[in-house]
Amino acid sequence: MEWMQLQKKKQDQTNFFEIHLTLLHVFYVLFHSDTWMGLGGTRTSNYSNSWAEKFIWLFFGIHLCISFFIFIIFCNFVCLVLNF
Fold first, then answer.
1. pLDDT-based confidence at 46, cuts 50/70/90?
2. Phi, psi of 40 (to 5 degrees)
3. What three-state secondary structure class fits 52?
4. Residue 46, CA distances (Å) to 69, 70, 80 in order
């Protein structure tokens, strides 16, 4: 019976990490494409290259990535604590 419990625990952990890996890829596509929340494509001719806009994108881009990374670490920690 203990072997079955260990296998179930491993499967739950695998599913948890697969879900978070999928979410990571989805957010990468959504937030690192050329247009805000777009799915890629080429940059349009009216794309602004102002310093203010670059600063805003840099500021929000870094903070979104860091926040999402901290969220993933927190979720993994919670999962590990709950499984023990």
1. low
2. 105, -155
3. helix
4. 32, 35, 48
d(CA 40, CA 44): 11
Q: Extract the tokens encoding 5.
A: 């419990």
Distance, in Å, from the CA atom of 40 to the CA atom of 5, rounded to the nearest integer, reads: 44
Helix, strand, or coil (residue 38):
coil
What are the sequence ranges of the domains in the chain? 51-84
75, 27 Cβ separation under 8 angstroms = no
**Backbone angle region of 16, left / alpha / beta, with phi > 0 → left and psi within -120 to 50 → alpha:** alpha
Q: pTM surpassing 0.70? A: no
Element holding 63 (H helix, E strand) = helix 51-83
